[in-house]
Amino acid sequence: MFLSVVIPTYNRLPILRQCLEALERQQLAAPIERFEVVLVDDGSTDATVAWLQANAARFPHLRLIRQDHGGPAEGRNRGVDHACGDVIVFIDSDLVVRSDFLLCHARALAKRWQQSGQRLCFTYGAVINTANFENPSSEPHKLNDVSFAYFATGNVAISKEVLEHAGLFDTAFRLYGWEDLELGERLRRMGVALVRCPEAVGYHWHPALSLDQIPRLVQVERERAKMGLVFYRKHPTRRVRFIIQYTWLHRLLWELLTLGGLLNEHSLRPLLGWLIRRGQPGLAMELLRLPLNRLGVRALYAEARQQGF
């Protein structure tokens, strides 16, 4: 089995270094014959490309592909186009994996292929969220790390042939969100089975919440609303409405939990700051999710009205 690890990246050099170093420490055994890392730089404006070129000898498995800034969907498609392997492994550039990461994916895929007699499946590994930059793999698995997504590109492996037959990622998703779940809907309709592989662990690093991140988090919710409607336009089903929270139930839920908007990113700011100062940024983030969800759902409905849904 020849694995191609496809990673789009944009201005994430500090954690990207750890991501690539972890991939160079992978254990190689049957059924893996070889692997490569196809890194697609999505027009980074930091020192990513210069650092990679200067340190190329440290990463013998790495191939760097460059493109103008076009978003992760375009980046992943370009990575697949350049991939030489028969299996594609998608991870994000802020994911640090264990040394047996690829081996776990490969063994789970090979076992399922042998059992079913065909390759209509993908393996879905575990993603553990962490704010520990120095030692991300020290983070334990937590309840909020559990994901019920069908196909999310933070940690999956799939036959390149099956992926190409599904049509790859839709590059209409140029803003944040939903491009991987939309591809997942097409895979699900093709009968491609989800094979959970919790042994293939990746640690998803993101900085601990600070108050200056709030404007960007608000922007992300607005982008997700726009892309949510792109998703729903392609798959106008009840299932997708629930995935993107385009239902009256979600409107009611977030209105109730935020007291009709009284609890918002502005009114909660003093409490969030207090929690952060007391070393509880994770709790502050969970609290902030309440108004962010309300904002996202309201933005979704406003965008729908504007587009005549």
Short overview:
This protein is α/β, with parallel strands linked by helices and 309 residues long.
What share of the residues lie within helices?
Answer: 40-55%
> What's the β-strand tally?
8
Which topology of the largest domain does CATH recognise? Spore Coat Polysaccharide Biosynthesis Protein SpsA, Chain A
- SSE succession: EHEHEHEEHEEHHEHHHHH
CATH superfamily of the largest domain: Spore Coat Polysaccharide Biosynthesis Protein SpsA, Chain A
Overall mean confidence score, pLDDT = 94
Largest sheet: 8 strands, mixed
Distance between the termini: 46 Å
CATH architecture of the largest domain: Alpha-Beta Complex
Question: How would the global form be characterised?
Answer: globular
| Structural class designation | alpha/beta
In total, the number of domains comes to: 2
* CATH class membership of the largest domain: Alpha Beta
The proportion of residues in beta strands is: 15-25%
Describe the structure.
There is one protein chain. It is built from 11 helices and 8 strands. The protein has 309 residues and is an alpha/beta fold. Helix 7 (214-234) packs across helix 11 (281-306) and helix 10 (269-277) runs antiparallel to helix 11. Strand 1, helix 1 (13-24) and strand 2 (34-42) form a beta-alpha-beta unit. The N and C termini lie far apart (46 Å). The protein has 2 domains: 2-205, Spore Coat Polysaccharide Biosynthesis Protein SpsA, Chain A; 211-306, no CATH class. The protein has helices at residues 13-24, 48-54, 72-82, 101-116, 160-166, 179-189, 214-234, 238-244, 248-257, 269-277, 281-306, and strands at residues 2-9, 34-42, 62-67, 87-91, 95-97, 121-130, 155-159, 193-205. It has an 8-stranded mixed β-sheet with strand order 3-2-1-4-7-6-8-5, sandwiched between helices.
